[in-house]
Amino acid sequence: MTSFARGVHHLALCTDDMKKTVDFYVEVLGMPLVHAMKVPPGLGTGPKNRGNPPYEGIRHYFFDMGNDSLLAFFEIPKGREPQANRNAIGGMQHCAFVVAPKRFAEIEQRLKSRGIEYIGPIPQLPGLVGIYFFDPNGIRLEFACQPADGEQQDVLKCNTQTKEELRRELETLPGATPEWIEGRLS
User: Residue 183 pLDDT more than 80?
Assistant: First the structure.
């Protein structure tokens, strides 16, 4: 089975300091700012709100995170919302970006030269290493690299298990029947 989605169009996160966020993502991570706007009137608290944060006229900026995908931020007014718990149900534990070996080394050097604490490089899966750190908003980020893949990172090949490996793990789920498991492996 192949996913119906081609990939991520954009991942929308929140900040309460857009300038600090722009500086970090452009200067430290090298993600170009490609679109900067304010949410049009009526889309924050009005009847046309389609899921935006409930504030009028807030900033909504987009960064190129590569491979035709965007990373977006809404700027929430300072003090209006609590800091998120990345381990809460429904929270985002971390966001991992895939990079080739040369870029992986560059990111590590950028973090080091700016005194940004990070963990890694550490092995994740066979053939996969990662660096973990936090952005200025407290969002945990990872840069992941499969060094043997060179410039053509093959994420699915590195991460796809055999049906038997998947089956063994699915069998540990409470209430997972053989029929349910087979239906997920098709």
Answer: yes
Q: Which residues pair with 14 in a beta bridge?
A: 74
> What span, in angstroms and rounded, lies between the C-alpha atoms of 37 and 112?
32
Distance CA 183, CA 76 (A): 42
Please give the Cα distance from 177 to 171 (Å, whole number).
8
- Under 8 Å CB-to-CB from 103, ≥6 apart: which residues? 143, 145
The phi, psi pair for 100, rounded to 5°, reads: -75, 165
Helices (H), 68-177: 101-113, 155-159, 163-170
Q: What is the pLDDT of residue 51?
A: 81
* 77-102 tens-digit pLDDT: 999 999 888 899 888 999 999 999 99
Q: How far apart are CA 84 and CA 75, in angstroms?
A: 14
Residue 1 has pLDDT above 70, yes or no: no
Neighbours of 43 (CB within 10 A): 20
Largest CA distance in the chain: 53
